[in-house]
Amino acid sequence: DAKTTQPNSMESNEEEPVHLPCNHSTISGTDYIHWYRQLPSQGPEYVIHGLTSNVNNRMASLAIAEDRKSSTLILHRATLRDAAVYYCILLSGYALNFGKGTSLLVTP
Amino acid sequence: NAGVTQTPKFRILKIGQSMTLQCTQDMNHNYMYWYRQDPGMGLKLIYYSVGAGITDKGEVPNGYNVSRSTTEDFPLRLELAAPSQTSVYFCASSTQGFEQYFGPGTRLTVT
Questions:
Q1: By C-alpha distance, which of B35, B14, B15, B46 is closest to B88?
Q2: Cystine design at A98: which of A38, A55, B38, B43 (Cβ 3.0–4.6 Å)?
């Protein structure tokens, strides 16, 4: 399975944008880039996914590099409720392969 | 919609006991999954199903069994519980792999 690399932790101030990076240098042409997040003591929650083009939804934006070897999840205005572990996952079949993710701390 | 529901929320088992973790979804999703999450780690796939009557092994299937007789239900059976199965178990469902919806989890301790 193709692997992803994320920083262990990041910190942001409330109401500021957050850019969460993910490297996936071994991505194949059919791998979709998915982002999930997990709030404390909860199950993971789908955030966004994309293949080649940048994507936007109500929760976040996903910026995908032209060579697809990296991507960035953008939270436009972080809130305290966005404090969670964010997972960048490559999906080419049915199952998600979770790594350790990035723990995002949001401070007031 | 209730989404994905799991029971029980918590359970303590003695070594060698058996139990079934229940998972039900009301979104008419064909795909269902069982994951486990050990402390400080990401989730690992135990079993998955692409439709009623069809199941397949994931990354860590040993010590577990599943069945899928209906679209809605996907129970996970633990036989002969071992301390290594102490974990949080999550069930999920989706239409086709994308946008998986997760349940709240079952916290299992085997002592």
A1: B35
A2: B43
Report the C-alpha gap between B48 and B77 in whole angstroms: 13
The span from the CA of B109 to the CA of B106, in Å, is: 10
Would an 8 Å CB–CB cutoff place A98 in contact with chain B? yes
Distance of alpha carbon A96 from alpha carbon A1, whole angstroms: 10
The rounded average pLDDT for each run of 10 residues, N- to C-terminus, in chain A (108 residues) is 87 96 92 94 94 93 96 96 95 80 96
How far is the alpha carbon of B94 from chain A, nearest alpha carbon, in Å? 9
Examine the pLDDT at B64 and tell me if it is beyond 80: yes
- Calculate how close chain A gets to B109, using CA atoms only, in Å: 16
- Please return the burial class of B23, using the count of CB atoms within 10 Å of its CB with bins 0-12, 13-18 and 19+: buried
Q: Is B30 exposed, middle or buried (0-12, 13-18, 19+ CB in 10 A)?
A: middle
Structure tokens at B107: 């916290």
